[in-house]
User: Fold these one by one.
Assistant:
Number 1:
Amino acid sequence: MDLVESILSIAVFAGTSLIFATVGEILTERAGVLNLGLEGMMIMGAVTGFAAALHSDNAYVGVAVAMAVGASFGLIHALATITLRTDQVVAGLALTLGGTGLASFLGQKLGPGGSPLVGMTGPRFLRVPIPGLSEIPVLGEVLFNKDQLVYAMYILVPLAWWYLFKTRPGLHLRAVGENPQATDALGVNVFKLRYLYTIVGGALAGLAGAHLSLAYTPGWTENLTGGRGWIAIALVIFATWNPGRAVLGALLFGGVNAIQFRLQAEGTTISANLLNMTPYILTVVVLVAVTLFEGFRTRVGAPAALGLPYNREERT
Amino acid sequence: MTTLKFEKRLTTPTYVKWSVPVGSLMLALAAGGVLLIAVGVNPFTAYGAMIEGAYGGRTALTETLVRATPLILTGLSVALAFRMLFWNIGAEGQLVMGGVAASGVALFLPEAAPSIPQSPWVYLPLMGLAALLAGALWGLVPALLKSSLGVNEIITTLMFNYVAILFYQYLFTDPWKDPAGFGFPGSAEFGQFAWLPRFSGRLNFGILVGVGSAVFLWLVFSKSKWGYEIALIGENERAARYAGVSVFRNIVLVMVVSAGLAGLAGFAEVSGISHKLQQGLAVGNGFSGIIVAWLAKLRPLRVIWVAILLAGLFVGGDQIQITLGLPASISQVLQGAILLFVLGGDIFSRYRLRLIRGDGS
């Protein structure tokens, strides 16, 4: 019981940043924009969030800065793909490559007096047990003895689901990604919505990065995100573009992380290098499984206009 | 109301063809300059030092060509796959697996098969072949998953990078670690028969492998039916199917060659530079290959020149790390900025901006 509790507890903790990033990417992709810059936005959020928290001595300032930086990267992606109609795949890759480089650069410069950030400790989010709820056996520890950002995630997921499937703006959002021409004809501003949700997706990616550098593994190290942005992009497919299902996927990956930790804590003889492969192999396995189980209807739930630039004057 | 509007160009004038990419490059450098000013460095000093460090003098130039060698091969690898709109982001992992396979041959074949003569004439082709096959195999799995099940290749090729890098780190820190290495991680040094001959400094025959591959791909694209099929699939997959082109076969074939080229880059790195399997093989050449390929507009011969330019950025970046104490990752930032600005600028060669006066409707 103890083991299950500790694994589930870490799974939720480790899955939180994945959920933020995945939900953000779902919103962006639902609007028809593929954002492969997620990894770059996450790592930029992580480094700037940590630096801002360090200098202001306030973790919330860190979160705000991380989200603002993520949002501005989202804005760049929107500008490149929506206005300048560049290839969404390559623009996203450019952002990830540039973002990773910039994060590494800033990581060596943003410490006090232009010193490196590596090895510094700053403010962070600590566990805040929710009175009453946290005393429930097992579930209390797993769900209600966490930091504030995890609690924010509990609110975000149902909210995103409700917004997407039950509200009028949510309907517009889905319509823009399915059939921008028809949506435009209805008087919805396709460009404005695509900009909006690309920026929102970026902000959530920044938040995801902030949870890593301010709560999960507090501090800054090179390559802190370790491909989580890419895993989140795979989770969007796993989740069939539904925020609710994203939670399942993120918990699965969080659980794998947790088991890795347990094994290492218990002094396993398996090399850490081999053990660390599991999330990446799992991503591939999960993608293959989704494709198989959904009965070869590939791209189930994928917005029909995903990845296509919208141009009022051209028929597609 | 006055609005700005993009209007499609019917023809692109020559001055636009040149001025747009050059202007984009300048803007990217200006963006990098803002960052440099922010950290208190004069951008002109920094860029001057970078150019000096990369192209000023014989030593600098050879080092730039050394850095360009893997970039040419990964750039070609990406260019081939992207021509078909197969998003192979896995050149990094394919390069690493190629390096691992070449190292495996150099380290263990002499003992396993002592009858094989220990001569470069025998060993270098064997290592190259092993690297080609290992890279190809690493690319084959995502290719098969894509062509048979439709699994998103961006994610699979990318995940395979992480697996390959961890596998290679495992090898040189554990089973392949040199017992006589004083505890330092890394394999034993290869015998001299497994070294690519050098021209000058660290510049070796690897660059000929790169240039040769570029010519080969150029021939494929411009002269062969296969090249035509690849372009057709990239332009319009449905039309290609109607024309009787096998998309399945082409995905597999293109990925085998594409990943094989990246594998060759790994061979050139271990056999031409490090002479052992150690840290430093996975330094992002696979990812930079994407930038090289795109800036070269997926054209094989242009890949060579773009690779040399980008390599200059890296060598120059290393230089200003030493002289100005700037993080070498500045070159990575500039890379991303250049790609982004060139991408964004491209619309100005396809469209022109028109100022429209009036009520707009």
Note: Chain A has a mean pLDDT of 91.
Number 2:
Amino acid sequence: MTLESIPDELIRLAVALVALMAFIAANGIMLLYVERKVAGHVQRRPGPFEVGPHGLFQALADAGKLVGKQLSTPAGADPLLFWIAPLMAFMPVPLMFIAVPFGQNLWGLETNLGIVLILSFAGFNVLALCLAGWASNNKWSLLGAARAVAQAVAYEIPLLLSVLAVALMTGSLDLRVIVAHQGGWPWQWNVAVQPLAFFIYFVCSVAETNRAPFDLPEAESELTAGVHTEYSGMGNGIIFLAEYANMLVVSCVATVLFLGGFNGPILPGPWWFLAKMYLLVTLIIFMRWTYPRVRFDQLLNLSWRWLTPLALANLLLTAFFAKLWGGA
Amino acid sequence: MGLFAVFGAALSGLKSMTVGLKVTGTNFFKPQETVHYPRQEVDTLSTFRGHIELVCTDENKLAPRCVGCGLCAELCPSNCIRVDTREPSPAACDTARHPVPTPLIAVPKFRTTPPDLAPVAREVTGYHLTYHTCSLCGLCVQNCPAGAIRFSSNVYFAGMSRGAFEIDLIARLRVQADKRGREQ
């Protein structure tokens, strides 16, 4: 078997997956540091400071500590499901990134169903949290899992509806086509035409990634740590990494759908893409340290009584104007 | 509630969320309020209540103002002060009476003021504080008729045994006077 006999697509996919894994791991460590620094500065304290210059290696030290810890399975837990759950939370994440166009010709997989691929693999996260909570044999974990499922079901609907509005407008589910449909300047982005859809998408994506103020599955003041109460060492680490990676995924998708993707003046595309993505990530981090956690009935009310009807109305209007002007 | 009122409430709620982000955003760029302790120390210790210490007289840096009345030991709810005294020589009795200085912390109005003249001073031979039972209530500082007790600013006080918190305050006063003398 020669190197030439391997299909090009396979090589591209393998390279993309390895690169994306590295991207996710590096981002996980960096975002952990950024999160703690932002928390510190918002509260007028320095944040991590002791390991390395300005505490730069704190996240690395934490990762080293997590790797070195013993993995213990709680008594009465289902060991298979318990250990499958963190893997299941993390494994779909690189797959979600392969369809994202980071720049001109910079993507892992050519597919005309990019959004569908991302949204379907995003569903794995809630399944993983559900399994983790169920298999832990712990009341806090189970309550966290129940919350995670109810929350994910409630927020997936307005999220899909707002994404659908963009798809209707563009007439494609291909992320590259959606990017090509937008220009380099803010008034050429989809957010200028679909501000409501962007707002709904953003709120739902924060809820889908279980970030504050919608971090009820974790809710450390009520549920210890919710679904990851019983996880030690890297079990906990992988779930956390998946959480940060999911935050990146939703920011990537928001950048592609609403903020013009890699389009931008002067600088090369990937820089624009990363800048927009990290802007959204920073906003999500800031929101965590600004807003208090919502109550569960408020959470569900927000989704079912506000976001879903608004997203439906937005979709209807979009469909009407798309038909009127022959947008798609 | 009408439809407009509902949407108005939602919009004002959204506005309040941007205000919240503005608050955290501005605080993010403001200077920090905390200090890196081992490398930096705070300088605002004037209001700190450390363990009590004796105040020296104006004339003699080595002698406490204490008149040995034992009021502090009697008042102390934790029973953590012990004052050892000796009766003064008759000759000292006349010179020992002096006007009562104002107490070193604020005294509530309902508290009766101490007598105008301090009682005849006894000779203080020892002043012991058992700090590990002290609750820092400040009754001794408030009621000392000679204004001889104040809170120290000994923030970084730590010890490995109980004994470290049983303090001989007279010895401490001497050490402090010695240190100040050497600094001058």
Note: Residues 74-325 of chain A form one domain.
